[in-house]
């Protein structure tokens, strides 16, 4: 098995001139040391933003380092929009962005990005270190079918944090101004300007040939975002929705049945809940009168409410939801009257919200 070096390090907090940047100088020293030690392969973790005229310093430095590499000894991996794992680096910046506010000002949300899971990045780097027949010195690692950056952020908020966000296109100057203002406000996570500029200036690479050469097929990013966090988010969702239909906190058995049902019939992904989910009873205001959307398409939230109701009816809680056994007639009639008043109050809200919320 050949020896190899996989170079991942990068220093962000430097104010040196780019030609004297510590990342460039340090990598050159490392390359020379690897050659003297008889290392057969040097894999450099670059970026899909690497080019001579990149908008940010990071992309320009990565491109300068690539010029020091020659195949088959040196190979550069231009990594796309890496996601997953610990919330650090660019991934951490994206996670903080989608949690700041329901409305996210964004520079060019239609910009195409090429996601790739962090585990797939690690696998690709190892394959580049071990492959014997290197065809070229630069490999693109990212989805071969690019997606809009705003679409990625909305799915990140929905699948990881069960939130609904609205991406608002704004000018570059306004985004940078907002970042400077946010950095002066306590308790608001700081967002690195370099990373924002890097995302705004991402090119699109044709990665199909490179992925085929590495014998890799990337998983859809929606699955990559949902799987690690799905169970925890579904348990939180089930606790809220089951409480909405049962009137009390559900037992763990009901929660487990809810998660199994969503995994079987609900594509294993949590749905964004309305802001009123802090009071689960108000979730019923989002259910359309007919239970159907235009064209017969059911609302995701309505589908989960109906699923929770079936779970409640099938379990021991079903008796508690609908029957008044052991109670006096007056108490039972009072509860029915209160239920009717509540339904009458929710009726106009259902006419408005039930049609619009998905």
Quick rundown:
This protein is of the alpha/beta class.
Give a verbal description of the structure.
The protein is 49% helix and 11% strand. The protein has helices at residues 22-36, 57-66, 89-100, 118-130, 149-161, 172-183, 193-200, 208-213, 221-226, 230-246, 252-265, 300-314, 317-322, 329-356; strands spanning 4-7, 41-47, 74-79, 81-83, 103-107, 112-113, 115-117, 138-141, 147-148, 166-170. Mean pLDDT is 79; it is low at 291-298 and 317-322. With 358 residues, it is of the alpha/beta class. A 4-stranded parallel sheet has the order 1-2-3-8, sandwiched between helices. A two-stranded parallel sheet has the order 4-7. The chain has a two-stranded parallel ribbon with strand order 5-10. The N and C termini lie far apart (54 Å).
* C-alpha end-to-end distance: 54 Å
Average pLDDT: 79
Number of strands: 10
Helix content: 40-55%
Uncertain segments: 291-298, 317-322
Question: Taking strands numbered 1, 2, ... along the chain, how are they ordered across the largest sheet?
Answer: 1-2-3-8
Largest sheet: 4 strands, parallel
- Number of helical runs? 14
What is the general shape? elongated
Helix-strand pattern: EHEHEEHEEEHEEHEHHHHHHHHH
Layout of strands and helices, then pairs:
Elements: E1 4-7, H1 22-36, E2 41-47, H2 57-66, E3 74-79, E4 81-83, H3 89-100, E5 103-107, E6 112-113, E7 115-117, H4 118-130, E8 138-141, E9 147-148, H5 149-161, E10 166-170, H6 172-183, H7 193-200, H8 208-213, H9 221-226, H10 230-246, H11 252-265, H12 300-314, H13 317-322, H14 329-356
Helix pairs in contact: 1-2, 3-5, 10-11, 10-12, 11-12
């Amino acid at each position: 098995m050949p020896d190899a070096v996989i170079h991942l390090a990068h220093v962000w907090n430097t104010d040196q001139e780019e030609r004297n940047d510590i990342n460039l100088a340090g990598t050159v020293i490392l390359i020379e040391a690897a050659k003297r030690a008889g290392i057969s392969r040097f894999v450099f973790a670059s970026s899909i933003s690497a080019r001579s005229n990149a908008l940010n310093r990071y992309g320009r430095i990565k491109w300068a380092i690539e010029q020091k590499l020659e195949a088959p000894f040196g190979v550069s991996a231009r990594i796309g929009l890496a996601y997953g794992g610990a919330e650090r680096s660019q991934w951490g910046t994206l996670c903080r962005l989608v949690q700041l506010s329901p409305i996210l000002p964004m520079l060019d949300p239609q910009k195409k990005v090429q996601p790739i899971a962090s585990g797939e990045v690690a696998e690709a780097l190892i394959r580049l270190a071990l492959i014997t027949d290197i065809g070229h010195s630069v490999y693109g690692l990212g989805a071969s079918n690019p997606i809009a950056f705003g679409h990625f952020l909305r799915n990140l908020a929905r699948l990881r944090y069960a939130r609904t966000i609205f991406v608002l296109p704004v000018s570059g100057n306004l985004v940078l101004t907002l970042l400077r203002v946010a950095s002066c406000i306590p308790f608001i996570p700081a967002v690195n300007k370099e990373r924002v500029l890097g995302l705004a200036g991402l090119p699109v690479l044709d990665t199909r040939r490179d992925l085929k050469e590495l014998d890799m097929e990337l998983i859809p990013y929606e699955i990559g975002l949902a799987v690690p966090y799905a169970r925890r988010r579904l348990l939180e969702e089930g606790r809220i929705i089951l409480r909405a239909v049962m009137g009390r906190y559900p037992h763990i058995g009901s929660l487990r049945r809810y998660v199994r049902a969503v995994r079987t019939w609900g594509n294993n992904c949590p749905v964004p809940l309305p802001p009123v989910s802090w009071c689960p009873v108000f979730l019923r205001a989002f259910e359309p009168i007919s239970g159907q959307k235009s064209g017969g398409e059911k609302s995701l939230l309505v589908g989960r409410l109906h699923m929770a109701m079936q779970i409640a009816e099938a379990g021991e809680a079903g008796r508690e939801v609908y029957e008044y056994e052991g109670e006096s007639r007056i108490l039972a009639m009072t509860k029915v009257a209160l239920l009717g008043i509540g339904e009458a109050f929710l009726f106009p809200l259902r006419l408005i919200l039930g049609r619009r919320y998905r």
